[in-house]
Amino acid sequence: MSRVSEILAAAGRRPIMAWVWTAGLVAIAFAFRSTMHGVLGGSLSYSAFYPAVILSAYAFGRGPAIAAALVSAVLGFAVFAAPSFDWQLAPNVLMGALFFVITCAVAIVVITGLTGALRQVSHELGRAQAVADSHAGLFRELNDRISHHMRLVAGVLALQAKGEPEPQVADGLRRAMERSLLISRVHRDLGGREDGPVDLDAFAAALARAVCVARDEPAERVVIRPSGLSLGVEETTSLGVALAECLGALLEADVAGPLAVRFGADGRQAEVAISEAGQAAEGVLVSVSNGYLLRAMAEQLGAAVALRADAQGAALVLSIPRTGAVGPGPAATFH
Predict the structure, then answer these.
(1) Which one of 212-216, 296-300, 321-325 scores highest in mean pLDDT?
(2) Mean pLDDT of all residues belonging to the chain
(3) How far apart are CA 302 and CA 94, in angstroms?
(4) Is the predicted pLDDT of residue 168 greater than 90, yes or no?
(5) For strand 198-199 and strand 222-224, is the pairing parallel, antiparallel, or unpaired?
């Protein structure tokens, strides 16, 4: 029955097909009643047409259902009501036709009213589902942002605790750091986001564009070298936080040339290297590597910040411990 309903509903979306299907249902009812005419005679002249009217009202609406009822009434009255093919206006024949028309009218009104109400309820449920999904997405994003900010606060507190000569103050800062990390984990759990693999190249490109737009810089200032890496959400987030801070600091330092970003990973750690082709690149990279927020992030993430020289020139490299495995394919490394 559900399959028939799906077929009729699909046909009802096209007005011409709705009328074609209605005519077909009436024709089927007429053919079925004709095969039974030798047994039934003039009795039950209209019973075979009820399913055609009901299905038309349910699937195609009020117009086709009224047409099906009127045509069925004429066919039943003219062909099957005794005496057949004779327009005798006997009271019992007229009352049978009138009863069929009235019951069909009631059925059409009730069925079309119910189907209209169901469509309205379905529409409202769809809107409510869309709003709920939107709110759920905003809630996850808010929890992710709070989690990231609390991790940054924890890193700052850890740096402060290391440089604090007073033991009680240092102990209080460490406790505050632990609570900040706990709050961060709670907010991340509340987000309910599944930790699936993330395309690191696409993520970094979107992040670089956002950083450039925030500082009124053209997106071409940052070039992401393809790596083909897919990391977990936690690792990608850690790299993203560090990358955003480095890119922001380098752009604020008015570097002249474009910034090249490369990624690498092995079984134990993930790395991001940022290089700049200008003559004073090394001095700028050194100043950025000593930035307070970057050091706080590295402290909280357990990352290492270093300057490395390779074929691309001087590069600022952040190495972050991994908690999962790389996606499909061999691990990528720097050369």
Answers:
(1) 212-216
(2) 75
(3) 92
(4) no
(5) unpaired
CA separation for the pair 317, 288 (Å, rounded): 11
Q: Supply the pLDDT for residue 330.
A: 38
Rounded Cα distance between 266 and 306, Å, is: 17
Residue with more model confidence, 220 or 117? 117
Residue count of the chain, please give it. Answer: 335
Lowest mean pLDDT among 110-124, 156-170, 214-228: 156-170
User: What is the mean pLDDT of the segment spanning 28-41?
Assistant: 84
CA distance 279 to 299: 30
